[in-house]
Please model this.
Amino acid sequence: MKAKASAKVIPQYVLEVLLRLATAGFQGYLVGGGPRDLLLGRAPQDWDVATDARPEQVEAIFPVTYPTGKRYGTITVRLGEAQVEVTTFRGEGPYSDGRRPDWVRFSATLEEDLARRDFTINAIAYDPLGEVWVDPFHGRWDLRRRLVRAIGEPRERFREDGLRMLRYFRFQSTLGFKGERRTMQGIVPEWLVGVARERIREELDRLLLGLAPGRALHGMTASGLLQVILPEVAALRGLAQGSNHRFDVFGHTVAAVEAIAPDLVLRWAALLHDIGKAQTKTADERGIHFYGHEVCGAALARAVLQRLACPRERTDRVECLVRHHMFYAGPELTDAALRRLAARVGSDNLLALLELRRADIVASTHRYDLAWADFYRFKERVAALLAGEQVFSRKDLAINGNDLKAVFGWPPGPKYREALDQLFHWVLEDPARNRRETLLAYLHSLYDQGDEQYGKNHNGENN
Ligand code: ATP
Ligand code: MG
Model:
């Protein structure tokens, strides 16, 4: 086997944990993603250790531990800077709620522990000290076949924990594997209904960031799972676009997800960018239209992400990208309009919009030539804008409220905000105007006539 070569990739601190367990007379195995990724030649995300030591015994062996999941047998062990999760072999009782077992038992064997895991490729145990592999469900064979296959009876396993149905597709995406047909047939989409939305979103996040999200998304539609989790996206299936499009809206969406850079905000934005199209489709003699789909879609995107308990900052960004993804990038775009767009969305989102547009073009039209010409010209203009003096918000103005108070002496009130708003829009027309003297002169021209009561401090000390 590859044991010799792989031992080099296992970090020293992991070997140290296993060695200390062995010295204390306990078994210790790497389980889960670690052995799987080792065999695939991928870098594992984390190293999980399974042992026959009870949680209290693990705490006694290692000087620094945290009881992160002690009820379920998991103790986090700290060695220097590194942390390893050490979990006692678990046997499980029945699942009556479709989410977690009714009881867990810590007197189990390694084989029992592996049997409660979800897929054969995730149920391989490896002891690097003795170079022993324990693989009762032939996970290594499935790794070679590049296949995601449930352990035992798929239908029962999915009824126990509905999230496993989503994980079936998640691993197809992250590993680029096929799904076993028999496992697919065990899927009953309704079993996902009671599963915590955070768990669902975390699996969706990983699925979207994977190597083959398109395969997973198509599989989820075929199984009916997408209709339960993301009905707004499933509704794009069969929604035809004009004749210069390669796919229906769903096919286009999937192609955009695959084309866009693997970043959570971008992948979610690509997945949701056209969800407004199902509700806005119209047709006339000139063709098919989706007027306002970006406005409708932005609201839908926010609702979807809130339903999935997505962190607020990401929800805000995705909503903004969906809202603005139809931005005009052609030759008639004025510099002022470009600056207004930049000011409205912010510089991060401006770059993200560019990437979304790139993916949108790749995923949609046959008329690459025209779209790309505009795209690259627009990209250069964005780069020039970002390299130059930027005014993205009222905070970037060369004067602030304190300056206004010193110069004009206005009493507190809405006037300050109004004045800064006015300056901001004036500067967006021409960034060279963002000089203190220029701005103050402009304000004097606006406010000096008929405003005597505020005019007492024209030659204020800051002038
Ligand atoms: P990744 O490298 O992407 O983290 P992973 O295999 O480590 O993949 P985790 O979600 O971290 O996936 O889970 C660790 C291990 O725990 C899995 O490999 C699997 O053996 C087991 N496992 C996790 N979730 C479930 C579940 N819902 N049902 C059964 N076993 C599970
Ligand atoms: Mg993991």
About this structure: The chain is about 50% helix and 10% strand. Residues 257-388 form one domain. Residues 13 and 80 are 8 Å apart (CA to CA).
